[in-house]
Amino acid sequence: MTSETRQVRIEYCTQCRWLPRAAWLAQELPTTFEAELDELALKPGTGGVFVVRVGDEVVWDRREHGFPEPTAVKRRSSPATGPGAPHRPSPASSAWTAGRSCAASPKPNGAPTSRPGS
């Protein structure tokens, strides 16, 4: 994602009930692009549409490529992870932190959570 393209828009078909799929993808993108994103939007559409745009550029269209995995959209959305470059997940999306709470979130008893090994 370049400095000029800081908006991601996911257009999904309301007739097909693809809001949950679009929302799932939308929640995955900030794990890689949180600092670069200015806006992440879900746009209702019709007619079987499921398109991901970065700025004005279409980076994924279901009609051409099927439904995307988040890593595929991330690769197409960033020159650093563009086609041919390996995907390097951020620590927040890695297996190391999978299923763990945010370190800044308080535990139910009010004590802060700690990271493994700290």
Describe, in plain words, how this protein is organized in 3D.
The protein has 118 residues and is α+β, with helices and mostly antiparallel strands. The protein has one domain (7-93): Glutaredoxin, CATH 3.40.30. It is built from 4 helices and 4 strands, in the order βααβββαα. It has a 4-stranded mixed sheet with strand order 2-1-3-4. Strand 3 (50-54) and strand 4 form a beta hairpin. The longest helix is centred in the first third of the chain and has 10 residues, at 19-28. The chain is globular.
CATH topology: Glutaredoxin
Mean pLDDT: 72
What gyration radius follows from the Cα positions, in whole Å? 16 Å
Our count of domains comes out at 1
The largest beta-sheet arranges its strands as 2-1-3-4
CATH C-level class: Alpha Beta
* N/C terminus separation: 33 Å
CATH architecture: 3-Layer(aba) Sandwich
Task: Indicate the structural class.
Answer: alpha+beta
Specify the overall morphology.
Answer: globular
% residues in beta strands: 15-25%
- Total count of strands: 4
Query: Helix tally?
Result: 4
In short:
This protein is an alpha+beta fold. It has helices spanning 19-28, 30-33, 62-65, 70-77, and strands at 7-13, 39-45, 50-54, 57-61.
